[in-house]
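Q: Given only this backbone (530 positions), what sequence would you predict?
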């Protein structure tokens, strides 16, 4: 089946899919801010720790807590920061982040038998319905002698979606609609609202070009606001992040002596505290980062070398980001074992203060623990749970992320240690969190998901985990209680998310597990013979 030829002919014809649609496909590669909670380096007013100023923290939490609302008018923070309608941000289909046209962007997945003219019949039917295609993608089907297709289009209402679905059922063997819901051709289940989520790792490119909070744009109270040289430097670095696409070499930044001196001051001060306050896993990884990634007071590590190191350790990778993503976008990327990292650094005039996440926070707070297998799996569990989650459930997962990845404590050899990045990159709160002043409770995702937290002061309460493995198991159990009408898994070989919503996929998944178990049993038998 010459899929590409048919698609090209459909594009060139005088049909709803015109040459201008190709441009809209490029423009639709959009995204928004990095997770607001991922970089809260806070301090009390009288300390010298890195911090976000109170009014910025208010803005971050307002975006975090109300950023899931479906109405931009009810969320002035989101309305002022986002360039698209909030309904388009919250209810987008697979592979179609952002909507350059009107209506609801929808993705339909269908399977057709490999025969002459099969795809042509589908395209003609869509043309007759005046459907404006934005994307068409094919791949070999898991069913013999079949092909799977994904198409994106703009629909005005759910009625239009149903009309396309009904039309496809006449020629396709399987039809699934995912944008306003998911339905199988063999069922009559009602469409259920499902927020958009990336299906393959390259879909994360969608987050690269949209307006981001911070990044090249600085607030008036930023230490570098009046420094034109610093602003130009930030613009240069964020431009590289905007241009980056999956599969390309990660941008290399030639840091200046001034930037390296700023990094060195922060690095040296935190290293001393980490030896007494940080968890064992962090202290184990740091020498490896020095040896493999060039961590030192005189060198700012590059994303490329750190990403290669993490890939070898746990399969995690880094990609550059220009600023803050929404909580949903940031968490979704974790499902692919991808961490979005900034590359710019705080202003040199105040090396122990930053109003936003920077390379110091990312490399000294977040990155090290992604080399630990248990922490890596735990973080991915949060990401997988966020895919297609309701706004309410996504807010719960964000709160869990806050109390673990950002401000988590753990118990090791009878002592409490810090592992949260917001603690590990904050001098003041790293010391405070291990005192008797804050309350410390055992980690329970059900409680953490509903626990409010202050943003202008140190945490009055921290959750203490018994181990990263225990956290992973508890979050996995918690995720099973969420309202999402399907399960997902990440296929590391194809770097795709597989939606387990039909018997065929689940049987294939089970068969793979059975094979892995057979190899495990064989390995255990051989070990017993030694």
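A: Predicted residues:
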């Amino acid at each position: 089946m010459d899929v590409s030829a048919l698609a090209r002919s459909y594009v060139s014809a005088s049909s709803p899919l015109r040459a201008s649609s190709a441009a809209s496909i490029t423009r639709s590669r959009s995204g928004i801010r990095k997770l607001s909670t991922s970089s809260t380096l806070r301090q009390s007013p009288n300390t010298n720790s890195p911090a976000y100023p109170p009014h910025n923290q208010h803005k971050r939490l307002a975006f975090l807590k109300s950023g899931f609302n479906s109405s931009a008018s009810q969320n002035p923070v989101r309305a002022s920061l986002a360039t698209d309608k909030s309904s388009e941000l919250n209810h987008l289909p697979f592979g179609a982040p952002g909507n350059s046209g009107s209506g609801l962007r929808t993705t339909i997945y269908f399977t057709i038998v490999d025969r002459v003219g099969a795809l042509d019949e589908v395209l003609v039917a869509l043309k007759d319905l005046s459907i404006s295609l934005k994307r068409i993608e094919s791949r070999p089907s898991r069913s013999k002698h079949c092909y799977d297709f994904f198409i994106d289009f703009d629909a005005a209402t759910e009625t239009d979606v149903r009309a396309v679905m009904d039309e496809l059922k006449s020629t396709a063997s399987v039809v699934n609609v995912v944008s306003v819901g998911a339905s199988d051709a063999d069922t009559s289940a009602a469409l259920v609202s499902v927020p958009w989520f990336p299906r393959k790792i390259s879909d994360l490119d969608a987050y690269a070009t949209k307006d981001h909070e911070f990044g090249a744009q600085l607030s008036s109270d930023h230490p570098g606001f009046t420094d034109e040289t610093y602003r130009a430097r930030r613009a240069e670095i964020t431009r590289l992040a905007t241009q980056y696409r999956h599969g390309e070499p990660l941008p290399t930044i030639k840091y200046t002596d001034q930037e390296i001196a700023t990094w060195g001051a922060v690095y040296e001060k935190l290293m001393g505290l980490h030896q007494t306050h940080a968890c064992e896993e962090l202290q184990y990884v740091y020498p490896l980062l020095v040896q493999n990634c060039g961590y030192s007071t005189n060198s700012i590590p590059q994303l490329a070398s750190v990403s290669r190191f993490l890939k070898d350790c746990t399969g995690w990778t880094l990609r550059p980001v220009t600023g803050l993503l929404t909580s949903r976008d940031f968490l979704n990327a974790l499902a692919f074992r991808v961490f979005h990292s900034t590359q710019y650094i705080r202003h040199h005039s105040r090396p122990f203060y930053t109003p936003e996440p920077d390379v110091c926070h990312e490399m000294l707070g977040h990155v090290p623990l992604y080399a630990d297998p248990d922490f890596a799996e735990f973080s991915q569990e949060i990401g997988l749970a966020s895919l297609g989650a309701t706004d309410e459930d996504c807010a719960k997962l964000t709160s869990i992320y806050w109390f673990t990845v950002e401000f988590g404590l753990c118990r090791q050899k009878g002592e409490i240690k810090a592992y949260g990045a917001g603690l590990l990159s904050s001098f003041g709160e790293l010391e405070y969190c291990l005192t008797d002043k804050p309350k410390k409770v055992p980690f329970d995702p059900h409680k953490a998901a509903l626990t409010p937290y202050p943003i202008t002061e140190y945490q009055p309460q921290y959750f203490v985990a018994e181990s990263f493995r225990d956290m992973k198991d508890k979050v996995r159990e918690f995720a099973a209680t969420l309202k999402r009408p399907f399960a997902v898994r990440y296929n590391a070989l194809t770097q795709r998310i597989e939606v387990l919503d039909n018997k065929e996929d689940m049987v294939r998944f089970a068969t793979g597990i059975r094979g892995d178990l057979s190899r495990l049993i064989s390995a255990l038998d051989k070990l017993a013979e030694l």
